[in-house]
Amino acid sequence: MKKSSQNNLSVLLIVFSVFLIVKLLWTVIEINFLPIYGVDHLDMKEIKSLYYKVKLANTHKPKKVKKTKVEKNTVNVKDIKLLAIYKTSQDIIITVKYKTKTKVLTKGDKINGLTLDDATLNSAFFVKNNQRYKVDLVKTIKSNTSIVPINHNPDNLKETKADISDEGDYKVIDKKVFDHFVNNMDDIYKNIGINEETKGDKKVFKISYIKRGSVFAKLGLKRGDILKSVNGENVDSYVAAFRIYQNMKDVDNITIVIERNHKEMELEYEIN
Amino acid sequence: MVKKIVVIIVSIVLSVAIFMPKDKLYFLAEEKLSSYGIEINEKLIEDKLFELSLSGLSVFYNGIKVATVDEIHIYTFVVYNRCDIVGLHIDKAIDKNLSEDDIKASLVYSILNYKTANITIKGEDIKADGFISMEKFFIKFDEVNNGLKNMLIKDKTNGWYYEEKFTK
Predict the structure, then answer these.
(1) pLDDT tens-digit profile of B145-161?
(2) Which of A177-191, B78-92, B103-117 has the lowest average pLDDT?
(3) Do B122 and B104 have their domain in common?
(4) Phi, psi dihedral angles at A45 (to 5 degrees)
(5) One domain for residues B152 and B108
(6) Is B42 in the same domain as B108?
(7) Which is more confidently placed, A43 or B72?
């Protein structure tokens, strides 16, 4: 009986010792050879339209410009009209119209005694005397500017029935048509051919074929055009092209830079 | 004496499996994969007693999102290791025909068959099994959808299959 219990004890000791040794070994390996963090894919900044805050085509009837203050205060911000916002993780750039002049402000700049502090997608925040003031983005643009709101009443739609409508400086792409091509890559290649070519030491993507009457032809693209960038993202590799395609789902505006006859051109589109 | 040897072996196997820093080893695997352009993002990592559970995974190749995986369960028993992949969805842009499938795959490595790791794949219209060794990767399809057939080879003995030999 005593021998048996001694045996059991020795087995337990062996098990305990092995566990201890192995734990120690793993700890040494963990400290010396294994990484503490994994490797995560960091998304490149999402493809954003360059002028995404200036809504070119307005689907609604012009509304009265609304400017609200965050807190009750005495400072008058009604003279400041927020026309556009460009915001990244590092920069805040806004365009405002103050009285009759248009000004571009970055964070810290002052206007009418108000200092630009922060901005969201739809509003800019100013600070004065430790009080915070909010100015909303102007949602309507007067017709005497170069940007003309589009009348999207049902009659007008019946008249046009177009996938792409030309509005002069830019084209408006029907959202359904756009979504269809975003979700069906095969259909893109049925309408447009893009070849990779080497130009000097760089790779370029050249349009080799465009189906007549197709959406891509209506976009203003032509055979021989070299795609330089889409929404600021250079098209210099298949990976870049594919990434741009994958990030197209949520964009409202597209700016395509092409090279045609040795000249760079910018094509503007709005998804609506 | 024999009893003691058995106890020692069992203890070693168990303790290695239990105390294995599974999450850190997974991070090491992520590092190695990233050198081949493969990056995996996961929402949750759970280091369990005998299992490493990963969920909400996105797989990127050269910066392109190629697939999402609902869950991966990695079981490590030293002499028997298994990796279950549940809910593998290939990105629609990569392969439209495969994208809607909910594919389950499992990779088994056992000391009894130490030269190869066995693979089984099951999807709505995919059923395949094969192996990966130091020499080649071979997978034979019992059921295969049309979208995948473009990538496969067919012959009388194997039917539809995919094979890739590794050069040394």
Answers:
(1) 776 777 788 888 888 99
(2) A177-191
(3) no
(4) -55, 135
(5) no
(6) yes
(7) B72
Q: Please compute the mean of the pLDDT values over residues A254-269 and round it to a whole number.
A: 89
Q: Is A239 helix (H, G, I), strand (E, B) or coil?
A: helix
Alpha carbon distance B102, B145 (integer Å): 13
At A99, is the pLDDT very low, low, confident or very high (cuts 50, 70, 90)?
Answer: confident
Domain's final residue, options B73, B93, B114: B114
Domain count of the fold of chain B? 2
B15: which chain A residues are within 8 Å (Cβ-Cβ)?
A: 18-19, 22-23
State the DSSP string of A218-254. Answer: HTT--TTPEEEEETTEE--SHHHHHHHHHGGGG-SEE
- ipTM value, please give it: 0.83
Structure tokens at A125: 């925040």
A246 and chain B: CB distance < 8 Å anywhere?
yes
- Residue B83: which domain range? 1-114
The reply to whether domains A80-136 and A154-271 share a CATH topology is: no
Q: Is the pLDDT of residue A205 over 80?
A: yes
pLDDT digits (tens, 9 = 90+) for B35-83: 998 999 999 999 999 999 999 999 998 888 888 999 999 998 888 999 9
Q: Is some CB atom of chain B closer than 8 A to the CB atom of A35?
A: yes
End-to-end Cα, chain A, rounded Å: 88
**CB distance from A206 to chain B under 8 Å?**
no
B26 and B88 housed in the same domain: yes
Query: Where a domain ends, among B78, B96, B114?
Result: B114
3-state helix, strand, coil in chain A (%, to 5): 25, 35, 40
With respect to CATH, is domain A154-271 assigned 2.30.42.10? yes
Residues of A in contact with B3 (CB under 8 A): 11
pLDDT > 60? residue A226: yes
Put simply, the answer to whether A239 touches B21 (Cβ < 8 Å) is: no
What Cα–Cα distance (Å) separates residue A156 from each residue in A59, A172, B58, B154? 12, 14, 44, 56
Given a cut of 50, whether residue A144 has pLDDT beyond it is no
Same domain, B92 and B40: yes
How many angstroms away from the CA of B20 is the closest CA of chain A?
6
What secondary structure letter does DSSP report for A40? -
Domain A80-136 CATH assignment equals 2.30.30.830: yes
Say which of A23, A35, A40 has its CB closest to residue B24: A35
